[in-house]
Amino acid sequence: MDSPQSPRAQHHDERELAEFIRAGSKRRPDQAFGDYYSGHSASCALGAAYEAMYRLPAEVGGQHPTRDLDWFFDCLDNVKACPAEGCKKRIYLAALIVHLNDDHRWSREQIATWLAGEPKAAPPKTAP
Ligand SMILES: [Zn+2]
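^ Those are the sequences you sent over. The predicted structure of the assembly is below.
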């Protein structure tokens, strides 16, 4: 490795990861459970992120990716608390994404929204 060690902006990582999940979800419109990929049209949240991570640089015209894979795996190595209500798990982000996908049956979009730190879509209000 001879890449320069430049200080990186921290904590934009999960937002970018969310974008990868969304990009991968467009590629495979169905969600897989228990597997990264299922058939040609389904991926779980982490599978979607992997796929987008590996393929996106090619789609921007062969430009050098701005991030390397180390960033991606560093990000997935953070231990985080499960955001699902009533769940006390604290696991690596990579495992947590799969856990949300498989065990809590969150949609990939829900997982991406959580990762990006965006407010949840407000539940529809019932008129008084
Ligand atoms: Zn959980």
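The longest strand covers residues 79-81. Residues 1-10 have pLDDT under 50 and may be disordered.

Shout if you want it in another format.
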